[in-house]
Amino acid sequence: MKIKSIRLRNIRSYVDQRVDFPKGSILLSGNIGSGKTSLLLAIDFALFGLRRGNLSGSGLLRKGAEEGSVELEFDISDKNILIKRNLKKTINGVSQSAGYYSEDGSSEDLTPVELKQKILTLFNYPKEFLTKSKSLIYNYTVYTPQEEMKAILLADSKERLNILRRVFGIDKYKLIVENSRILVSDLKGKKKEFEIRSSDLDSLVSEKKIKELEIKDFGSSLEKLKQSLNNVSVEIESKKRELEEFEEKSKRRDGVMKNLDILNNIIESLAENFSKNNSEIKKLNEDIDSLEESIDGKSVENSESLKNEVLEIENEIRVLESENKHIVRSIGEIEFGIKSSEKIKSEIEVIDVCPTCRQEVSEAHKCSIDEKEDVNLRDLKRNLEEHNKKEDENDKRMFELKEKLERFRIVQGDYSVLKIKHENLLEKRERVANLVDEKSLMKKEIGSFNSQKIDLNKVMDSFPDNFEIFNSLKSSVDELLKKKNELSSQYSSVETRFGMLSERIENLSSEISKKLVYRERVVKYSQLVDYIEKEFVQLIQTIERSMMKKVHSDFDALFKTWFGSLIESEDLELSLDYEFSPIISQNGHDIDYGHLSGGERTAAALAYRLALNQVINTIMSSINTKDILILDEPTDGFSSEQVDKLRLVLESLDVEQTIIVSHDPKIESFVDEVIRFEKKEGESFIC
């Protein structure tokens, strides 16, 4: 990660200031209160937002301002990032409002929480830090106010150990153990629950065996009743067949009687229709004689030729009318041409100057135009006379054709009446012929139906009238049906009891299956509890101890190295106990951290910070903030020699960008860039 620039608007002592950061080591120089630390707080705010108890909106927003903002631009993992966070003053205090996030030019508006999520993802920090009030990894690897690092050295040992466990990610093992104990308690509760649920398993198995014996007896009874029912059913079917045969004969007799009635009705209807046919034939013959007399040999053959002549006349009239329309239109055009020529002749007589070209018109030119129009007028008038003559001829021809058409239509009407009478005569002759055929057919049908009637009467005589057999058969069937109903009732009763037993056995089987599963779970949970209590928890605790031992060893070695680089003293030694508390020994005697000189305390805090930085970056090797380091007043209380040693320490750090806040002018000699700050009339700015 490399910070490129930051812009502050109404942040603490800044009104509107942009600061650009080069690569390498940078010193933020200025008097106390000139705005150096405000810049570091603004970077912290831009990345992680406001955090209760650590960074408040009222502490950041410039006094008297209603709104403020911080824009931070940085490069990380080959991406250019621009993030902006906003502050707004409300009646409830100063709060964050929505900001925006830009990645390689593609931007989006995000809420404060969404912005923090983006940063954690970019930095590859654990997701659980999203809800934490303090970003421990950032604070202990990138930027920690020096007083806070001194505070961790002076903190309660248990509190410090818990903080470092969280920073190193080792507290997860403690959480695993605690969760394992909760899980064991839960598993024991479930084990007890399944023990209770499976407590009646043996009694259910015993009951199932008894019910299986009972159902076996009922099954035998059902088979016997089923056989008896089958025998009765066979006998009933036999009697029913005899009864059906008798009923079939009765139905056939009834059918013959019904057919006789139908035949009588048909014969009667045919006789009536035969009489009606005779009457209709007589009436039609009278009508035919009358029509033949009215037609009296007249022919309708000429009606078609007359119709064709009418069509030809109508077509010729249409052609003449169309031709006259064209003639009238042409006459109008000719008359318009005559008027135009006469107008030109009258105008050319009085014109002296051409209205178009404004030149004088000669008499010769006038005579030329006048002669030309005379020729045109003669042609037009001759043409008009020819068109008028043709129109008169067409009108005369149309008058003659219309008179002829009227005469033809009168004759055509007489032909139509004659044609209708002729068609009526043909229809009546055809009807008479059809009625004669029907009369002949009816005569044959009456004879045929009378023969069928004789045959049916013979069949009727062959059916017996004795119903004693029918009554005997019906009585036998009724008795057998009664017996079948009694057996069916017994069968249903036994079958119901059999079904109830089957259902109970099925339910018992289902319950027993469930109880067996419960017993298996009791065994499974017992094994799981034993494994967690006796093996898993011990394994996690062993891993935790091993991790803590490794972290302590590395931390202690680095702490000694960095402190030794800053303080050269043969009688002063520092190391860490197993709670990561500093052990200070001077001339073989342990002394308290507070008894060290100011420079020694600062050196111890800086060594602790640098060691912590390296251990975290080693353990969490995938985080993306290993290439930047921000030091806040790292030389407080240092002698000139110690400041020189700090230079060697900084040169040995393998980071791309180091930002140092200090008012010690000697540091300017060993950094790549110096940014100077001043404060005038309550406003900070770059010199």
Walk me through this protein's architecture.
Strands 2-1-4-5-6-7 form a six-stranded antiparallel β-sheet. A six-stranded mixed β-sheet has the order 8-12-13-3-14-15. It has a three-stranded antiparallel β-sheet with strand order 9-10-11. The protein has a domain at 298-443: Orthogonal Bundle (Helix Hairpins). Helix 11 packs antiparallel against helix 12. 67% of the residues lie in helices and 14% in strands. By secondary structure, it is of the alpha/beta class.
Set down the secondary structure blueprint.
Layout: E1 2-11, E2 14-20, E3 24-30, H1 36-48, H2 57-60, E4 67-76, E5 79-90, E6 93-103, E7 106-110, H3 112-123, H4 136-141, E8 143-144, H5 146-154, H6 157-168, H7 171-197, H8 201-295, H9 303-350, H10 363-462, H11 468-566, E9 572-576, E10 582-586, E11 589-591, H12 598-619, E12 628-632, H13 640-652, E13 657-661, E14 673-680, E15 683-686
Parallel strand pairs: 3-13, 3-14, 8-12, 12-13
Antiparallel strand pairs: 1-2, 1-4, 4-5, 5-6, 6-7, 9-10, 10-11, 14-15
Structure in a nutshell:
The chain has 687 residues and is an alpha/beta fold. Helix content is 67%, strand content 14%.
